[in-house]
Amino acid sequence: MTDARSIPVDPTSLERLAGQQLTYRNIDMSLPADAEAFFRADARGFLDSEPSAEVITATTAALEARRNIGVFEVGADEGALPVATVNSWVTPLTVPGGEVDMWAISSVTVSGTHRRRGIARALLEGELRAAASAGVPIAGLTVSEATIYGRYGFASAIPAARITVDTRRAGWAATAPAGRVEYIDKETLRDHLSTLHDVARTQRSGQIAGWKLRWDRVAGLTPDHPSAASVRGVRYLDEHGAVRGVMAYKLAEIPDTFRFEMTIFHISAVTSDALTALWGFALQHDLVDRISVDLRPIDDPLPWLVSDRRGVEVVVHDHGWLRILDVPAALSARTYRAPIDVVLRVVDSLGFAEGSWRLTVDDSIARVVPEADAAVDVVLDVAALSALYVGGVSAVQLRAAGLLDATAQVAASIDDAFRAAEAPLLGIWY
Ligand SMILES: CC(C)(COP(=O)(O)OP(=O)(O)OC[C@H]1O[C@@H](n2cnc3c(N)ncnc32)[C@H](O)[C@@H]1OP(=O)(O)O)[C@@H](O)C(=O)NCCC(=O)NCCS
């Protein structure tokens, strides 16, 4: 897998920013002052409070694995914070039938003093050109606002469900699986979150690999964690004693009631029994009236496990955003659920995916070739193709929104081929 840190900064963005008296350069994370300035700018950009020395040390150590870029005023004092930040790394993205390399982008910030003069555009286009130059066929990110990234060809492709439960109304109807649930300490919680995610992420398209600091944070083990003392963990062991599921959560009193709300930070369950057992633990917990959790798959079975489904509220929202850069490499990296033979005309204002492509799927394997002269079956923007890619968005729905120009029959056949068996999921923020 490509090491993103070996890819130089994009020369076009370098030149464009230099024209604004700005230096666009890699951050050398082995230089503590450079690393600290990057992370403090990142924290400021995300409206966080000033990080403590301990947080800076822990975070910058984790950022060493990424390609970190800062934008500086030409002639800025040594130690000055960058006026903009971005970082990236290459990670496996699970797709139906396998994995594809994805250029993950994070830490996109532009300082309040330098906003709306094209710096974010230079950063994003620079990342896409860097990824394409490295031969990485797709880029991905999670977003603070859903209005920022469509202009670069990204689309919401992996929706997630935010679930809230009124436990008294919902009740519980499922049969308890064999096996048992146990409390675990935070270090064990962190270790299980990591190892089970490595399995769980291969089970649903849309998932990416996790990293240690993420699991430290979920387990309440990072310095200055806002609710470290409240984080609790349980695991599920199957009837043979194998760990198949883990859940991190906290309990907080609903003021003056001595009834409690459970906030679940993360569930990783690699079998249906594990998920049922962990849901059963949560929903039958004494003194707990409310449960909330985000980043569940939209086909989570919970509404079918309770006595009254109206006690379970499921809100679907955008979460994982994808952007195809190389159409043949991306489309041939996944398998399909039905044969299809279509010519796609892909429109891409940044050029990466622009062209006409024949997609032929036979025995679930795809062949994708440029097809300049054939009659086109589907016209769509690269963002729409990216939305469809991992099988979490419907072509019929995009057609109804005017984002995919094809007959109803062709749109339905795209859905037959592209849909994933289980709803795609991205279980983490990055
Ligand atoms: C979002 C952010 C990075 C934009 O930076 P910026 O340098 O001001 O953006 P640019 O000047 O390059 O704008 C590029 C385009 O995005 C648009 N845009 C910028 N910020 C936007 C926002 N918050 N919502 C919608 N559109 C936005 C601009 O209007 C411009 O549109 P155009 O090129 O189609 O005319 C910056 O506002 C920021 O740091 N916000 C806080 C941190 C954050 O939310 N980061 C994103 C993490 S996912």
TrEMBL record:
Ranges for domain N-acetyltransferase come to: 22-190
The record, for Gene3D superfamilies, names: 3.40.630.30, SCP2 sterol-binding domain
Q: Which residues bind acetyl-CoA?
A: V108, T109, V110, R116, R117, G118, I119, A120, R121, S144, E145
Q: Which residues form the active site?
A: Y149 (proton donor), Y430 (proton acceptor)
The family database entries (PROSITE patterns) matched by this protein are listed as: GNAT
Q: How does it assemble?
A: Homohexamer; trimer of dimers.
Record family assignment: Belongs to the acetyltransferase Eis family.
Protein name as annotated: Acetyltransferase
What organism is listed for this UniProt entry?
Microbacterium murale
